[in-house]
């Protein structure tokens, strides 16, 4: 399948993302920054303070802390809620980032036991949450990335929030793609976050920064998270390469999420018209969806590679094999608008 | 003492460092980098691979891994050696970075028990090491920063190495300032590192990069450290802002360490000529020394602030109070050469 990745890399435009992850992304963000702007220093200084305050306001929380990664931020959030409630059990979706992408950091570093809620192919339900035993914290991911970016309704969120409050369960938001979810809810970030005790957001997904995350919540929670950030070795002398680029790309793209989502809806509809091709969700609720092809990975990969070569449009660099079909992810960003209508028509013609 | 820091910040040149920690440091490092150079991605890609291989070679180790911080790298190193030996005790100097600057991360995240070796005001001795109980790993810091950058002789290092090998104790090098130590030993980095099982080096001290660290050792050790890096949330999608600046400033300054040290020796001698002022070590062995003033912190701080205002030369922005005296640190870098002989003469005249 190297050919699939190779042909993808050689395409001039791609269905997904904001363009290639290249050094230019950093250089653009710093073009207008003065050379004598001071660095942050171990979590102190105007650069980091201003961005943390801005994000606390955006998310409607008392306080916010910049972290190099969401992995670090979220493990720490769960640890703090466990310590506060003197429990060591949390609950999350079976395809939660902590469960499948972090080499069991939560278990290895904190001996916290996660309960996996519901089925991995769909969102967890209120009933499943109500059936949980006594836990410190429930983590909800909005949107649920590994199933194509599905979202519960706002009413469902409110019901989950009320249940958790009643039971004394802390509710944490994995908002890696929170900004991407706002068009669906037609709400401000702070209105969603008001339902959660703590929130993490990422700056290199829909926002398209270089790396970095914000963890927000009550002041005491954030203060404790800074102690853990130091313990983890995340309290770097300088985080400004990530902070300033996060801020730059946040400003550039925060208001484009509805546009990305509309393109995703239109694009998914065209894929769903093809034989043996379908998306989940069928109608995307954010800028992303999963794209499935009936058939063997080798054969589908070869077909996509050929289409990428012939159209110059990157569809994907990888396929994951499942029962009789294979899948990939599409996530709309700035590059999509660089694809001409003709290129797209050609792409779909070749799929037929 | 705000006045001390304020006047320090307003100076045009400083005794210590490579200039102010400003955004220009990043921009300079990337000036010659092409916009279309690809990012590293979760520890993969040419950018990170090349730098890791280069550093493995420089340090004479089989393998090397780039980390966002030394805090993360060293806790992980000790954890791996503990797991391998099935012990949970390590040993280090009472003023080791892990003991005083990491909010007890090693204990909180790994339940590893450190034994503090020797007296905090001097280097540990071979006899003290020989008296240690059965431990997984001994950490040596070269130079010992918190006592002014002292170094054991190479013969002492060899004796410690032999003892540890005989006893099955892993020897880890905290080489945050390893490059700064090489002029004293008149050896290559690899010759020092050959005495250690694993090594950490930093890129924002004498090298003057933005942040970041290398952990080097046997291949299996490094492979396991990558799993822990993922667990810690240190396996960022992009570390290139740190990697490329580390490489840039490493090339710029690696051969200047002897020059920095010679300046430190000359400068310390001048301070030692003053009444009620002395340095530790009396004759620096690296580019750094601690600078002590007989008297109260307020009074000395006021005096230094005045001298900083009058000469435009930054001596320090802080003082630490001890018994009847107060102290600060001087660490020579590129800025020192920008101070004119006249400025320096004036500075010492004003101290008299």
Characterization of the model:
Chains A, B: Belongs to the threonine aldolase family. Chains A, B: This is Aromatic amino acid beta-eliminating lyase/threonine aldolase. Chains A, B: Keywords: Lyase, Pyridoxal phosphate. Chains A, B: It holds the Pfam family Beta_elim_lyase. The structure is a homodimer of 352-residue chains. Chain A has 352 residues and is an alpha/beta fold. The first copy, chain A, has 2 domains: 115 residues, Aspartate Aminotransferase, domain 1 (Alpha-Beta Complex), CATH 3.90.1150; 230 residues, Aspartate Aminotransferase, domain 2 (3-Layer(aba) Sandwich), CATH 3.40.640.10. Chain A is built from 15 helices and 13 strands. In chain A, the strands form 3 sheets. In chain A, strands 2-8-7-6-5-3-4 form a 7-stranded mixed sheet, with helices on both faces. In chain A, strands 9-10-13-12 form a 4-stranded antiparallel sheet, covered by helices on one side. In chain A, helix 1 packs parallel to helix 14, helix 2 crosses helix 12 and helix 4 packs across helix 11. The longest helix of chain A has 16 residues. Chain A is globular and about 55 Å long. Chain A starts with a helix and ends with a helix. Chains A and B meet through helix 2, helix 4, helix 6, helix 11 and helix 12 of A and helix 2, helix 4, helix 6, helix 11 and helix 12 of B.
């Amino acid at each position: 399948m190297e050919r699939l990745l190779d042909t993808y890399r050689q395409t001039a435009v791609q269905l997904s993302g904001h363009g290639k992850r290249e050094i230019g992304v950093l250089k653009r963000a710093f073009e207008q920054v003065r050379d004598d702007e001071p660095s942050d220093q171990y979590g102190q200084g105007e650069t980091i303070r201003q961005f943390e305050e801005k994000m606390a306001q955006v998310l409607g929380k008392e306080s916010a802390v910049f972290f190099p990664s969401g992995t670090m931020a979220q493990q720490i959030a769960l640890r703090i809620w466990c310590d506060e409630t003197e429990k060591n059990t949390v609950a999350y979706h079976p395809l939660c980032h902590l469960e499948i992408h972090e080499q069991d950091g939560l278990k290895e570093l904190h001996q916290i036991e996660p309960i996996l809620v519901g089925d991995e192919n769909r969102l967890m339900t209120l009933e499943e949450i109500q059936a949980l035993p006594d836990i410190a914290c429930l983590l909800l991911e909005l949107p649920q990335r590994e199933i194509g970016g599905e979202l519960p309704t706002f009413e469902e969120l409110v019901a989950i929030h009320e249940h958790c409050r009643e039971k004394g369960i802390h509710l944490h938001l994995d908002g890696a793609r929170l900004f991407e979810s706002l068009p669906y809810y037609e709400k401000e970030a702070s209105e969603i976050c008001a339902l959660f005790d703590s929130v993490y957001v990422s700056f290199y997904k829909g926002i398209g920064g270089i790396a970095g995350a914000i963890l927000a919540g009550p002041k005491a929670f954030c203060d404790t998270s800074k102690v853990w950030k130091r313990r983890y070795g995340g309290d770097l002398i300088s985080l400004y390469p990530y902070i300033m680029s996060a801020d730059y790309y946040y400003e550039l793209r925060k208001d484009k999420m509805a546009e990305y989502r509309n393109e995703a809806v239109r694009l998914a509809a065209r894929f769903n018209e093809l034989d043996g091709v379908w998306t989940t969700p069928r109608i995307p609720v954010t800028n992303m969806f999963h794209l499935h092809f009936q058939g063997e990975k080798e054969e589908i990969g070869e077909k996509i590679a050929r289409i990428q070569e012939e159209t110059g449009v990157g569809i994907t660099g990888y396929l994951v094999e499942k029962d009789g079909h294979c899948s990939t992810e599409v996530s709309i960003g700035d590059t999509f608008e660089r694809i001409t209508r003709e290129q797209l028509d050609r792409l779909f013609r070749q799929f037929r």
